[in-house]
Amino acid sequence: MSIETMAEDAEAAGRLIGYGFKPKTRPARDSAYAVLVKRYAEDPDFETLVTRYAEGMGLRVIAVTSRAGMVHTALPGSVFETRMDQYARHVRMRESREAERILYGLTHLAVAALAFPRPEDLADDGYQGKVRVSAVDQLVRSVCRVLAERVAESEESQDPPADAPELEKAWRAYERRPEVAPTKGGRPGASATRTLIGRALVHLVDRGMFIQGRPDSDDGEKIFAATHRYQLQVRELASTRAYEELTELGVLPPIAGTRTLRTTRAETLYD
After folding, report:
1. DSSP assignment of 111-158, as one string?
2. N or C end of the chain: smaller count of CB under 10 Å?
3. Distance (Å, rounded) from C-alpha 30 to C-alpha 88?
């Protein structure tokens, strides 16, 4: 292989990785993107090159599909890793303390669980999960109640876990906030939990993970539809210990730890 050919391949790999930073761009609407996705699916050498190139940049390739395109995530410590202060600015987080971070973490996990409530839904590429702010709020409040009960039980046994103070801060902070707190202008107040959830969902919309649909005709509440890109991300999330621990609280569907969540290479790369 000539140096020129190697350089062209490296450039092509870089372009494909670059598309991963454009979450709203789809191969179906970009012919050059579609060619690269097809090559990744059919050329093992190019797949290896893209994977290693991404790793060198501090990224891990989750999947490359004709529907979602290039989907990658930042490796720990990578320059591309989204830091809490960056996320806090985007969602206009009022507090930077650990309890606030836990609440946003629970919110995102609740969104994932509600979007794909059953293992078969998460494994089905044709399934499109949908969520509402009110449903996420109800689920997070259920999680907080369970955390509160666990803290209370540990206090009664006089053997509180090391992280009990932070868990207590989390559920107390959430329960103290109203679901909605309209301002004089009729808008939801910044301290309302549904405002917090709405901002988290808009954050996902901006990153091509959800599509914000029209309000429901019955109650006027907006419906957020998950994209295939988000589905691929949740498949990765479902294999992590954090998601498993949340399902063990007994308030989320038992998605984690199910082998059917993973698709085969052929299904994942080019569907």
Report:
1. HHHHHS-SHHHHH-TT---EE-HHHHHHHHHHHHHHHHHHHHHHHHTT
2. N
3. 33
Give the residues across from 59 on adjacent strands: 74
Q: Can you list the alpha helix ranges (DSSP code H) found in the chain? A: 3-19, 31-42, 44-57, 84-91, 98-115, 119-123, 133-156, 164-176, 193-206, 228-237, 241-247, 265-269
Is the Cβ–Cβ distance between 27 and 69 less than 8 Å? yes
What lies within 8 Å, CB to CB, of 84 at 6+ separation is 96, 101
For residues 193 and 177, the answer to whether their CB atoms sit within 8 Å is yes
pTM over 0.85: no
DSSP state of 188: B
The least confident of 71-85, 114-128, 207-221, 244-258 is 244-258
* Identity of the residue numbered 118: R
Q: What residue has token string 């103290």? A: 176
Long-range contacts, stretch 81-89, CB < 8 angstroms, 24+ apart? 87/203
Lookup: tokens for 72:
């990658």
pLDDT in tens, 120-172: 888 899 999 999 999 999 888 887 788 777 767 766 655 544 544 555 566 67
